[in-house]
Design goal:
single chain, 284 residues, alpha/beta, 7-stranded mixed sheet, two-stranded parallel ribbon, 11 strands, 18% strand
């Protein structure tokens, strides 16, 4: 995301070229990379930061994982979808350590699919160990965001299902700034301890943004969390960046709103109340 800066080698990172789709997963406390199909636009590494090219991996990488499971289930139903509210974990009471161990606990709760689309995208929610954030409560909040009627289910094609175990199509990891930098940096993305990224099948949420929001976003931090999830999951669906569509209009969810609104109004949702997709000129 943003402009590319010259390559800088990091001796600790196993990295893939930015133009190659990659995913970061933890193996024995370290980062291992697996290549994803170049034909899958949702596999491209993206970040709300300047991206840089990284050196070619010096180690072998695993073969591509199978594509997302899209088999619909008969039990798919729409569930009540309230807007994330201030009843979520108080943002100002959660400390934000600069770094963490790089290991995660998966929320073991699961739910029924939400949305009417035939493509059911199963996801897990994982929270880095050692931070004062409940993985179960984070999972409930993310499930509520993805079930919102103005969210990605409004396209009529995609449904989402929170799972606590078994196969998943993508993971949402909430991590300390230092861990975010390592995961995203291994795929050639520069997050500077400040922002989020999507690497392959992993949505990486910076705890700093989850807790503190952004000065550019005029609204409660719970609403900003909805923007984080909608923006990064949008990349998983193959959506690229867009910019402001006109003075006074709502900013697209796929806009990098943390960099400034360019005359638009802060907005967390991909779709308007009338079902119109909110977008603007594509960002190269």
């Amino acid at each position: 995301m943003g402009k590319r800066v010259p390559a800088r080698r990091r001796p600790y990172a196993r990295a893939a070229l930015v133009g190659v789709c990659a995913t970061a997963v933890f193996v024995g406390g370290g980062v291992a990379l697996a290549n994803w199909s170049k034909g899958d636009p949702a596999g491209a590494p993206t970040a709300d930061a300047e991206a840089r090219e990284a050196p070619t991996p010096s180690a072998e990488v695993s073969p591509p994982s199978p594509g997302p499971s899209v088999t619909p289930t008969p039990s798919r139903t729409s569930t009540p979808t309230p807007t994330p509210s201030a009843s979520a974990e108080s943002p100002r009471t959660i400390p934000v350590p600069a770094d963490g161990p790089g290991t995660f606990t998966t929320a073991r709760s699961g739910g029924s699919p939400v949305g009417s689309g035939d493509t059911v995208r199963r996801y897990r929610v994982q929270v880095e160990n050692g931070i004062e954030l409940s993985e179960r409560q984070a999972a409930v909040e993310i499930e509520t965001i993805l079930a919102h009627p103005r969210g990605w289910t409004a396209d009529g094609r995609n449904s989402f299902q929170l799972v606590g175990s078994g196969p998943s199509d993508f993971d949402v990891k909430i991590a300390t700034p230092g861990t975010v930098d390592r995961i995203c940096g291994a795929a050639g993305l520069l997050t500077r301890g400040e922002v989020n990224c999507t690497v392959g099948r992993t949505v990486v949420v910076n705890l700093k943004r989850w807790v503190r929001g952004s000065e550019q976003f005029d609204g409660p931090v719970t609403e900003y969390r909805a923007l984080i999830i909608n923006h990064e999951v949008g990349h998983r669906l193959g959506r690229g960046h867009a910019t402001c569509g006109g003075e006074g209009r709502p900013a697209p969810a796929m806009m990098q709103q943390i960099k400034g609104l360019q005359g638009c109004r802060a907005n967390a949702w991909p779709y308007a109340e009338d079902g119109t997709y909110i977008t603007g000129p594509a960002v190269p």
